[in-house]
Write a structure and sequence with these properties.
By secondary structure, the chain is mainly alpha-helical. The protein has one domain (17-166). The chain has helices at 2-19, 27-32, 35-72, 78-103, 108-134, 159-166, and strands at 22-25, 139-142. A two-stranded parallel sheet has the order 1-2. α3 (35-72) runs antiparallel to α4 and α3 (35-72) packs antiparallel against α5 (108-134). The chain starts with a helix and ends in a 6-residue tail after the last helix.
């Protein structure tokens, strides 16, 4: 009796598993074939470099103030020393604040990345969702993001289909 129930449960599980349909996408491949994504990344890199230069310029000013202070400290009165030290601290704080403003967790670079890339990601998501619904896929996995996928049949990779749905030519 136990063997019959176990066999029945295994059979039901096998039927349920065989009814599941899965697909894969390669998000890196898809993004690499979308020119707007490459342009957005280039724009982000240029902006990041420009902002990094601004921060480094202020840090350099702070270092120069500190070096000058060290060179002249012996000749300065207590009041002058205190004023110079405060100027150095203020300049270092200015650099730190600017770094946080540009590169912090909610900084300008994050906001700019979100503004430039989120529409592209949304468009991809909508295309994947439309294909998944049309072909009755229960799950679509990103092979680029999941290191747990050791092998997957190329037959279930719908990356080119996603690109075609988005109106891009396939370069694979």
């Amino acid at each position: 009796m136990k063997k019959t129930i176990l066999s029945l449960l295994l059979g039901i599980a096998a039927l349920g598993a065989s009814a599941q349909k899965f697909a894969l996408i390669d998000m890196e491949y898809i993004l690499g074939n979308i020119p707007a994504y490459e342009q957005a990344n280039e724009q982000l890199n240029q902006t990041s470099k420009r902002w990094q230069s601004e921060v480094e310029a202020i840090e350099s000013e702070a270092q120069t103030l500190y070096k000058n202070y060290q060179d002249e400290a012996a000749f300065l009165s207590a009041e002058q020393k205190q004023a110079r030290e405060q100027a150095i601290i203020d300049k270092e704080k200015e650099a730190a604040d600017l770094r946080k403003k540009y590169f912090g967790p909610e900084g300008e670079l994050y906001k700019k990345r979100l503004a430039l890339l989120e529409p592209i990601h949304t468009e991809i998501y909508n295309a994947v969702k439309a294909i998944a619904q049309a072909k009755n896929f229960q799950m679509v996995l990103d092979r680029a993001a999941d290191n747990g996928i050791i092998f997957a049949s190329p037959a279930i990779d719908i990356s080119n289909e996603v690109l075609q749905k988005l109106g891009y030519s396939v370069r694979r």
